[in-house]
């Protein structure tokens, strides 16, 4: 992939050049809380902070930077709750001394006029790219027509939204076919980290998977047990998905989250792990509650004694200690998915135990984006205490599945 340095050389410098940057600014918003300007509160600005180095590099070189990004999943038309206006305010704070404008549309005469008004070293954030049906269209012609409009705004394109590179969208894939292009620093770093996880990882290699559903992780588990993990490596499973593993081994799981259609497949994973010498680590105790609520009655119970009227919402303390022990001597760790409902304090301790184990251990640790990244920050762990915190949960998983990602392929 071309780097920013390569693109700068190709263009004869960035000064005065209009550079369209596809960033990942898809941050979580709390619509029940408002800031001083009446905007929803951003609860985790990690993706915004991760986008700043590439933007700053271009701005300092005199580029006229036009940023496009998505927020949420609007259906190809404007929706007020998905506006990037709150993101604009925070981005301006993260770029002190830079004129940061906001355009309420993405393409057309108004957008072109706003771009034309930019001076060297200024930035313009366009409104949510997914307010346009052409962005996500499966029709190549419709998507291409929208990409033509985007390309008309710029002299070059920089792909820096790693969280979207697994999508064949206009602002991710098609624009790169129309303009001189390069990978931004964030995308380049993410790819370097993922290659380290997949090419020649230092062993023992431990993978921690959590989150709600086994069905969300089928592809990555297939590839982990098929090629990435070998004898002496470990696969640790927690979160809501673990109850399908427990049920597949004959345990009753009460009212816990369960995917009955995946029981046979999960039983196959257990057999494959045993045959390959991969240690499959499951919890021995869980926190079982009477309801999905922080104030519900809850107790720690063994996995073979989950009451029929309760649901598991976290791994238990013995399991947290066991997981930490199996991570202590690992040399490479990839973690995707919390161990419980970390947003509620009574069910946050399993996730905290895994995070603490990574901080205390000597492994190259990668936190795989999404809820995992939000969890470690919510629990008070600084980003720099981990080897890498990914900005793209879905993209990271698809890379680990061995899939080709359109947004990376087009840059190669």
UniProtKB/TrEMBL annotation:
GO cellular component: cytosol
Main location: cytoplasm
Subcellular locations according to the entry: Cytoplasm
Residue numbers binding substrate: 24-26, 47, 70-73, 130, 167
EC number: 2.7.2.3
Spans traversing the lipid bilayer: none
Binding site for (2R)-3-phosphoglycerate: 47, 130, 167
Top-rank EC class of the record's enzyme: transferase
Keyword Kinase: yes
Stored PROSITE patterns: PGLYCERATE_KINASE
Record pathway: Carbohydrate degradation; glycolysis; pyruvate from D-glyceraldehyde 3-phosphate: step 2/5
Highest taxon of the lineage: Bacteria
Name this polypeptide is given: Phosphoglycerate kinase
Organism of origin: Kineococcus radiotolerans
């Amino acid at each position: 992939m071309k780097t920013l340095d390569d693109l700068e050389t190709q263009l004869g410098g960035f000064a005065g050049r209009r550079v369209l940057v596809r960033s990942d600014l898809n941050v979580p918003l709390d619509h029940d809380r408002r800031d001083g300007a009446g905007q929803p509160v951003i609860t985790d600005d990690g993706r915004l902070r991760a986008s700043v180095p590439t933007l700053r590099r271009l701005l300092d070189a005199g580029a006229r930077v036009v940023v496009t990004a998505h927020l949420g999943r609007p259906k190809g038309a404007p929706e007020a709750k998905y506006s990037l206006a709150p993101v604009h305010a925070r981005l301006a704070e993260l770029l002190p001394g830079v004129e940061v404008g906001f355009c309420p549309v993405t393409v057309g005469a108004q957008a072109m006029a706003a771009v034309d008004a930019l001076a060297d070293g200024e930035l313009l954030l366009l409104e949510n790219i997914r307010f346009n049906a052409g962005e996500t269209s499966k029709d190549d012609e419709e998507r291409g027509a929208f990409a033509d409009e985007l390309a008309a705004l710029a002299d070059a394109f920089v792909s820096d939204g790693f969280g979207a590179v697994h999508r064949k969208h206009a602002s991710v894939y098609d624009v790169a076919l129309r303009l001189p292009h390069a990978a931004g620093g964030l995308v380049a770093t993410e790819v370097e980290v993922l290659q380290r996880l997949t090419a020649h990882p230092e062993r023992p290699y431990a993978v921690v998977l959590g989150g709600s559903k086994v069905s969300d992780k089928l592809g990555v588990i297939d590839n982990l047990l098929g090629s990435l993990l070998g004898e002496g490596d470990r696969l640790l499973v927690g979160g809501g998905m673990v109850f399908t593993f427990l049920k597949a081994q004959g345990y009753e799981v009460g009212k816990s989250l369960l995917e009955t259609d995946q029981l046979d497949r999960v039983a196959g994973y257990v057999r494959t792990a045993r045959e390959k010498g991969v240690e499959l680590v499951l919890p021995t105790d869980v926190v079982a509650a009477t309801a999905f609520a922080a104030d519900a009655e809850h107790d720690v119970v063994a996995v073979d004694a989950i009451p029929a009227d309760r649901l598991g919402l976290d791994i238990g303390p013995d399991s947290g200690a066991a997981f930490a022990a199996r991570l202590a001597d690992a040399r490479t760790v990839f973690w995707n998915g919390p161990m419980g409902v970390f947003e509620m304090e009574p069910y946050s301790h399993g996730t905290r135990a895994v995070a603490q184990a990574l901080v205390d251990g000597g492994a190259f640790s990668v936190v795989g984006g999404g809820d995992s990244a939000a969890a470690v920050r919510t629990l008070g762990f600084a980003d720099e205490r981990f080897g890498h915190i990914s900005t793209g949960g879905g993209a990271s998983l698809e890379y680990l599945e061995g899939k080709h990602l359109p947004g990376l392929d087009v840059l190669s």
